[in-house]
Amino acid sequence: MGTNDAKALKSGIWYTAASFLTKSIGFITTPLFTRLLTHEQYGLYSNYTSWLSTFTIFATLALATSFISARFDFEDDFDGYVLSTLVLSSIVTCAWALVINLSPTFFMSLTTLDIKYINIMVVYLLMFSAVDMFQSRERYYFEYKITVLTSVGISVLTAVLSVILVLAMEDKLLGRVLGSALPTIIIGVFLYGVLLRRGKKITIKYWLYALPICLPYIPHTLSLSLLNSMDKMMVTKICGAEANALYSVAYTCGAVVTLLISALNTAFSPWLGEKLNGEHYNEIRKISKPYILLFTYLVCGILLFTPELLLFMGGPDYSEATAVMPPVALGCVCQFLYTLYVNVEQFKKKTLGMAVASVVATLVNYVLNALLIPAFGYVAAGYTTLLSYLTLLLIHMLLVRHMGLAKTYPTKLVFIVIVSMGVYALFVHYLYMNTILRYVIIGVYILVTLTLIIKNKMTILSLLKARS
To answer: How far is 247 from 328, CA to CA, in rounded Å?
Structure first.
């Protein structure tokens, strides 16, 4: 294994561990908020986070997505590139702040949020860009230490401050929103200064490089954001805030799988960028096989623990949401697989096809939601999301094949994983009604996992101890 490969793998392990630690803090506090907030308040906060993910796209222009190629195209002045794109993001965010406050009634009607929450979003996004771009820059140099500390610090402060403010404030929803925003704002101010010192000057040509890549990426990320949040919006509108609370808690449990996607891709994409730059397709294909199988194995384990996760997250009142988890988790598997292909499209700057794919999948999701949620309730939303992600995966596979790069990933294995996980999801749904058998299988799964860790402990330890 080369020096860069070892460094990438080591940083990847730390990024994954840090992501799990930061997200686990969020999972630990979720049961507190499901008890401190009413079902309606919890549903409204879920609505706030859904709109936040949508506004993030318009405020930041997804400029950090250009880093995977800019890292090599501007390797002599990458810090200047990072600063230039950060300033552009800030200009766009401030422009949106002006538009929103000139037409507050329209935006309050659109989002069903008070203007104070929308303004908190704007300030948050201004500093979120600094945090996101700083961490992205560090990842592409495989520098994990400061990034890990930053992620953990923001997560801990967010959890602690949110609990304190919810307990202390009469308006508990406002306390939850402020608690989630202030740590990122405070740390973002500091990191903005760091990026200013590193980059030194703003170069307009970097804007002209980033915009053609990222503007087509906006409908892609917007569609993905809508795809991720449309279910909750439509469940709220059709079934009410309480049904959305049930769906949202189940979706939060499914977010354990999404966490895996984010954590693993954070580690994988910088390494992939280097290999694509060198056209080492056979090496990518070789590594991607165990990578896909590892992810699938972890998802199988998470699905086994769904009833306990729901009980922990929301208590007995949320137990009926168990039925949502199998399709949500299987949808996340499709999400993981299509992310592999999206990374290739990003590196090759082929973002227009990505936008078309995401728009098509979002339209599929909307139509299916409109037809099935009124007939079958909030549980249907999990299945519509699954079908939408499957659509997205198939389109991205075709796009990469059209680029002549189908050889990058093992296509046969991808289809085997989809079919086998579909069968497994049906089996797990049956297991939820047979607790004794489920516990026996959990015991076997834990035993196999421990055996694999012990068998490979020397490899794991050597990676953790390796020099950066």
So the answer is: 10
Same domain, 243 and 320: yes
The answer on 385 and 243 residing in a single domain is yes
| Spatial distance between the Cα atoms of 235 and 54, rounded to a whole number of angstroms | 17
Q: Helices 115-140 and 241-277 sit at what angle, rounded to 10 degrees?
A: 20
Q: Do residues 304 and 347 both lie within one domain?
A: yes
Going by C-alpha positions, the residue among 312, 358, 309 that lies closest to residue 335 is 358
pTM for this predicted structure: 0.68
What span, in angstroms and rounded, lies between the C-alpha atoms of 56 and 62?
Answer: 8
Specify whether 121 is located in the same domain as 34.
yes
Q: Is residue 329 part of a domain?
A: yes
- Does the residue 308 lie in any domain? yes
- Segment 39-57 mean pLDDT: 80
Q: Is the dihedral of CA 161, 162, 168, 174 positive or negative?
A: positive
249 and 336 in a single domain? The answer is yes
Q: pLDDT by residue (tens digit) across 81-111?
A: 999 999 999 999 999 999 999 998 998 888 8
CB contact at 8 A, 42 and 33: yes
Q: Which domain holds residue 163?
A: 14-215
Write the pLDDT tens digit of every residue in 125-154. 999 999 888 888 887 666 667 777 887 788
Is residue 224 domain-shared with residue 210, that is, in the same domain?
no
Q: Could you tell me if 55 and 121 are in contact, meaning their C-beta atoms sit under 8 angstroms apart?
A: yes
Are 231 and 209 found together in one domain?
A: no
Residues 345-373 have a mean pLDDT of: 83
Token pair of 309 as six digits: 């996760």
Same domain (yes/no): 146, 264? no
- 11, 263 Cβ separation under 8 angstroms: no
Q: What CA dihedral angle connects 433, 435, 441 and 445, to 10 degrees?
A: 110
Cβ(78)–Cβ(137) below 8 Å: yes
Q: What is the token pair recorded at 324?
A: 């949502």
How many Å from the N-terminal Cα to the C-terminal Cα in the chain?
A: 14
Number of domains in the chain: 2
